[in-house]
Design goal:
The chain is mainly alpha-helical and 162 residues long. Helix content is 41%, strand content 4%.
Length: 162
């Protein structure tokens, strides 16, 4: 399988095996919701006792997790969210580098702005300012300072509270 990055590059993607989990959303109930709540508890994002009812608190916990792993934060648990929950981090994200553009670049810029590494506009354009900010952040986090958002960088970025 391949993805096209925001910059138009073709990127090979390591696909994870399908988990074949139920789609869960507000109003869902049962053992799958208990499993979801336990995974969210493990991540420190859900503090109630698992009750198997997908109510507002579960939905908000899912949204927080989805933001952390750079997914659409709609509160609906689909295959990609299940995969990220089991991995405890982002999955199937493209490599971003100078020339990339789009919503994912904006998300990276926002995270780097929150760490005070990025001082430019959040414009979705991965240019020299974004690259320099990323390299500075990578060095401080003991990552290779490539200026490229690869899988390891995505995982480390996802640990920053958003």
């Amino acid at each position: 399988m391949e993805l096209i990055s925001d910059s138009g590059d073709t990127i090979p993607v390591t696909t994870q095996s399908e988990l074949n989990k139920s789609e869960l959303q507000l109003g869902s109930y049962g053992e799958a919701v208990v499993e979801l709540q336990n995974l969210l508890i493990k991540l420190g994002l859900y503090t109630d006792k698992p009750d198997g009812i997908f109510a507002k608190m579960t939905q908000e916990s899912v949204k927080i997790f989805q933001r952390q792993v750079f997914q659409q934060d709609d509160g609906i648990v689909r295959e990609q969210t299940w995969q990220a929950l089991y991995k405890c981090g982002p999955v199937n994200l493209p490599e971003l580098k100078q020339g990339s553009q789009g919503e994912l670049v904006m998300k990276v810029q926002r995270v780097l702005k929150s760490t005070q590494d990025y001082v430019g506009y959040v414009d979705g354009e991965f240019g020299p300012v974004t690259e320099s900010a990323l390299q500075s952040w990578q060095m401080r986090n003991d990552l290779p300072d490539t200026g490229i958002v690869d899988e390891v960088t995505w995982c480390t970025l996802s640990q920053i509270p958003q």
